[in-house]
Amino acid sequence: MNRVSLNIIFLSCLMLGACKKKMPPESPEVPVNLMQVNEQSVLYYDKYPSTTQALSQVVLLPQVQGAITGIFFTEGSHVTKGQKLYEIDTRIYKANYDAAIANLRVAQGTLTQSQQDADRYEYLNKYNAVAKQSYDHAVITLQNSKNLVRSAEEAVKSAKTNLNYAVVTAPFSGQIGFSDVKLGNVVSVGTTQLNTISTDGPMAVDFVVNEKQLPHFEELQRTSKSAPDSLFTILLADNSLYPYTGKISIIDRAVDSQTGSIRVRLVFPNPKNMLKVGMSCVVRVHNQDTKPQIILPGRAVTEQMGEYFVFVAKDSVIKDTSAKSDKAKSDPKANQPKLVAVQKKVMTGQTIGPNVVIKGGIKTGDKIVVDGVQALHDGSLITTENKVAPTVGKGH
Questions:
Q1: Three-state secondary-structure class, residue 38
Q2: What is the DSSP string of 207-250?
Q3: What are residue 293's DSSP bridge partners?
Q4: Per residue in 141-171, pLDDT tens?
Q5: Whose CB has fewer CB within 10 Å in the chain, the N or C terminal residue?
Q6: Cβ partners under 8 Å of residue 391, min gap 6
């Protein structure tokens, strides 16, 4: 055998040794904690992000032009229907009204004179004591005088309306905001915003639900009289519970074709004015399902690409087919059933504190891995001989 052949054999031995060194050790059994699946009755709420809305809200716009000469309310206060809020310079509108009244009186005087002339010419016409043309002119003059009176009356109405518009009043009772104009500002008809008024009690709370949930909420609306008082509640932005319960009021007429959602409106009393327009809150819909349900610790559930999984412990016989089978035969524990972690997809429901409702994928009696899931993959050997510390946090 030449030197080259010896070198090749030597290098082959080195590579074989290196490969043997890099081979991973046999996978050990992963220590885990298990729990058996049981069903139990639970109390929870379906939660929906929501926003408070006023049942009625209006932007105050001036109907006449002029300078603001009076502001008669406190910003942010409660105002009552008909309360005087703003005054626009009334002098020109008062003058126009007075002129319209004067014109009406002139027209009424002319009508009186025309009526007398027409009566006189009608009497003379009976006895053919006046020219037919003069009688006809008297009748036409009387009709024109009547029309002038009607025109003057309409002018008075218009002038009075403008004079009334110079004083802006609250269209309904509610809360008024910050004034957008100050004393002396000149406002234009229909363009200058004065303020905004919104009703402050009761208050609407709007949220959206998936179209798949629509039949459920329609049923809640139909049975609202027999529903429990705690069916609809809200959590405020500071996570505190609003002290009053609400009732379902309106379900929107159509589903949004882009999102597949539909808006639902609840109505809540607001005696202490705690709810303001535009507040963010969370609607809680009391769960009315009295059937027992499967509850798992959240840390037992893992998420992968928007889907949720758990590991179910299964007994399986693992046979040793390696070259060390003789040693395996001498081992009394060899080829005995061992626990294997089998990954199963589940459908999750409501999260309740550290736990989560499981709607499907596992059944009562299954043994679920609750601790040690981070070290598992589908088919991992597991053992419960070593106690595992609970995982901090939730996997779901």
A1: coil
A2: EEEEGGGHHHHHHHHHTTTTS-TTSEEEE-TTSPBPSS-BEEEE
A3: 40
A4: 999 999 999 999 999 999 999 999 999 999 9
A5: N
A6: 299, 371, 372, 373, 374
d(Cα 248, Cα 266) in Å, to the nearest integer?
4
Residue 66 pLDDT: 97
Query: Any residues with CB less than 8 A from the CB of 339 and at least 6 apart, and which?
Result: 29, 313, 314, 315, 316, 381, 382, 383, 384
Residue 127 is encoded by which pair of tokens?
């006895």
Task: For residue 289, give every residue at least 6 positions away whose Cβ sits within 8 Å of its Cβ, in sequence order, or none.
Answer: none
Homologous superfamily of domain range 91-165? Helix hairpin bin (1.10.287.470)
62-89+167-193 to CATH, choices 3.40.50.2000, 3.60.150.10, 3.40.630.30, 2.40.50.100: 2.40.50.100
d(CA 362, CA 348): 11
Please state the CATH superfamily assignment of the domain spanning residues 46-55+199-286 in this structure.
Efflux pump adaptor protein, beta barrel domain (2.40.30.170)
- This prediction has a pTM of 0.67
* Structure tokens given for 52: 């408070």
For 94, half-sphere exposure in the C-beta direction (CA atoms, 13 angstrom radius) is 6
How many DSSP H helices and E strands does the chain contain?
A: 5, 24
Coil vs helix vs strand at 75: coil
Domain residue spans of the chain: 25-42+291-383, 46-55+199-286, 62-89+167-193, 91-165
